[in-house]
Amino acid sequence: MVKRVDKVYNTVVKLTKTNEIGVSALEIAKELGLERSTTSRYLNELYRESKIEKVGGRPVLFKAKIPNKDNGVGTFTKKMNSLDKMIGAKESLNLPMEKAKAAIIYPPRGLHTLLLGETGVGKSLFAEQMYEYAKEVNIIRGDAPFIRFNCADYVNNPNLLTAQLFGVKKGTFTGADSDREGLLKRAHNGILFLDEIHRLPPEGQEILFLYMDKGYFSPLGETGKTVHVNVRIIAATTENPESFLLQTFFRRIPMVISLPSLKERTLKERYKLIETFIK
Description:
Elements: H1 4-18, E1 23-24, H2 25-32, H3 36-48, E2 52-55, E3 61-64, H4 94-105, E4 113-116, H5 123-136, E5 146-150, H6 158-166, H7 183-186, E6 191-195, H8 202-214, E7 216-217, E8 227-228, E9 232-237, H9 241-244, H10 247-250, E10 255-258, H11 267-278
Parallel strand pairs: 4-9, 4-10, 5-6, 6-9
Antiparallel strand pairs: 1-3, 2-3, 7-8
Helix pairs in contact: 1-2, 1-3, 2-3, 4-5
């Protein structure tokens, strides 16, 4: 006779196959005709045994860890990585996912990446998930920095924009009243995400190009000082990169990933996005 706790687990497995986001205790209780409190007790028991995982939010959702037949009965698949968890990972985001993984693990230090897509397609989120994936596969340390910078914030002040990224020597321009460390140095051994990279002026692109090519750069106003860092660059733009980026800079980005617009997503993906936002 199948134990009730096993029936709950089998139901979680069944419902997870059609709802990758996860299922609630109430949904499982209705499926089995049980009280919600009883179902929650069994779910907590399965969670303690590492047979299911919890997804934060309201309500709390549950997802099954499906048995891995290749490793024998009683073992379970490893937890899905951050990229594979994204909505559409097996559909419209499949190719972008594979490219992102290749960019992170490419020896010896990964590939600088440019994300293309309309406003609102999730370029920032995608960059964050690339960062999480890099930690999960031990490419970068768990405490490695992830620094986000929107180049559009300083679009009317090119000097300040360049200084924010690369640092500046005191007196280089009006307002530079002290030596300042840039974000590229602060991102050492981690990832620097540059949103709206097309707003970066040509001078800034040249400095970034030098870093990508040589592994070092000079702060604004410095003549003999160079700074060596190990940083992966993820840039994003809504524009045609060939129109707004210097060709010398554009050619230094070996991985270009185009993210689909909402209208290019499947109906199933759009439904899951709406469901996720609501939850």
